[in-house]
Amino acid sequence: MHESTISQRERNRLDTWNAVHEAAHAIAWEEGPQEAAVEAIAARAGVSRRTFFNYFPTKEDAILGTRTPEVSEGDIERFRTSDEDELTRVVHLFVAVVRTAIPEATSPQRRRIIGEHPSLQRRVLRLLSEVERIVAEVIQARVEDGDDVALAAPGDGARLEALLMLSGVIAKYAFHRYQESSAEDPREFLDESIAMFREVVDTTR
Amino acid sequence: MHESTISQRERNRLDTWNAVHEAAHAIAWEEGPQEAAVEAIAARAGVSRRTFFNYFPTKEDAILGTRTPEVSEGDIERFRTSDEDELTRVVHLFVAVVRTAIPEATSPQRRRIIGEHPSLQRRVLRLLSEVERIVAEVIQARVEDGDDVALAAPGDGARLEALLMLSGVIAKYAFHRYQESSAEDPREFLDESIAMFREVVDTTR
Question: What is the predicted ipTM?
Answer without folding.
Answer: 0.85
